[in-house]
Amino acid sequence: MAVPKLEDSLPQAGEGSQNNKAKTTTISQPTPYAPSDFLSRVDNFAIIESTLREGEQFANAFFSREKKIEIAKALDSFGVEYLELTSPAASRQSYEDCKAIADLGLKSKILTHVRCDMGDAKLAIETGVDGLDVVIGTSSILREFSHGKDMQYIMDKAKEVITYIKSQGVEVRFSSEDSFRSDLVDLLSLYKHVDALGVNRVGIADTVGCATPLQVAELVRTLRGVVSCDIEGHFHDDTGCAIGNAFSAVASGCTHIDTTVLGIGERNGIVPLGGFVARMYACNPEYIKGKYDLQALREVENLVADAVGISVPFNNYITGYCAFTHKAGIHAKAILNNPTTYEILKPEDFGMTRYVSIGHRLTGWNAVKNRVEQLNLNLNDDQVKEVTAKIKQLADIRPQTMEDVDRVLRDFHNEVHNITSSSSSTTSSESAKAQTA
Ligand SMILES: [Zn+2]
């Protein structure tokens, strides 16, 4: 199997082939969590954001033209390299919306997703998009129960459609559907065939969410040895492996990953934009900070959550309400001394704030001392230990809010210093300010 010399032959994600206008960023020093494999693309990959295609297949999704444009603009300013839109062949409205978004002149390149069919491809070209993502089912189960065509038919059809799209001067990706349940020999010969036809990317799709990170790594490595074009990965999350699979793919040579905001999509969805960004940031923060406006992530997620009538999950990557909350006393102490002890992501890089929760029975005196200092109270270590015991006692009965804790601290402080002032309650704005300290 011929392994191409990557540096010479590969178009680079984000700077590569033809009229690719996606941005590049200087490669910076990766962290020890980045793979050191020579095939790895963790510091040179692109995101194909598919909220306006895969995301439209989410049970709750119905995007008006205005909403699609709002989401497209938000993702464009976040900095994703590509936006993928629903096929113009889906409906009249989809066709018009595709045209309208392609006309916006965004920095992100606009792609649309079409079946391997001349009619679909011609319609897509009319909308003025920058590229077409062509897909066809290759697994025997799809060949039997979906389109009913054999591999020779798929090869011939692929040639006809790809040749036409290329003649129109736009990007073309060719992907199989359900790649992980397709015959490997069929798959590789098909990809070799379309690579020779000059596609920009071949795509592998875990359409049913059955793949594991090890299987993904193996397939991408094998494919890397067979084609010289870019490789795109599309991973569903039915069994919880989507982000792991996407990471494994990139670490093995995959150049483009499909995401949607909050992972919305068919069934329980695909790789979430925020989770994938978190994973890649852990490998190389500088590269990710240089490429994407991380502070805008929360706003994009809120926009999409509102549009589809869901809330951001409590345990969401980066923006979940407890993503940067530290509770255990032993963690709180270390976090206050050096946040990297228990944080792989810096909350401030994402416009988020660290919160040390202290109103509970697991609290520790170091965390309480930090709060005492935030409130400008004058207590020595022994006194802080004493008031910590009091907080633990109260928290054994019921959890204490920040206001409750502040009241206990102020009352204790006043008692110690014989102050009889009645201004012992904390206003919520004071409290909020202190929490962000
Ligand atoms: Zn999908």
Automatic annotation (TrEMBL):
Domain Pyruvate carboxyltransferase: 45-298
Region span, Disordered: 1-33, 416-437
Pathway noted in the entry: Amino-acid biosynthesis; L-lysine biosynthesis via AAA pathway; L-alpha-aminoadipate from 2-oxoglutarate: step 1/5
Biased composition (Polar residues): 15-31
InterPro entries, per the entry: 2-IPM_HCS-like (IPR050073), AIPM/Hcit_synth_CS (IPR002034), Aldolase_TIM (IPR013785), DRE_TIM_HCS_fun_bact (IPR048253), Homocitrate_synth (IPR011872), LeuA/HCS_post-cat (IPR054691), PYR_CT (IPR000891)
EC number(s) on file: 2.3.3.14
GO molecular function, one term: homocitrate synthase activity
CDD domains referenced in this protein's UniProt entry, alphabetically: DRE_TIM_HCS
Database matches in NCBIfam families: LysS_fung_arch
Name by which UniProt lists this protein: homocitrate synthase
Organism: Mycoemilia scoparia
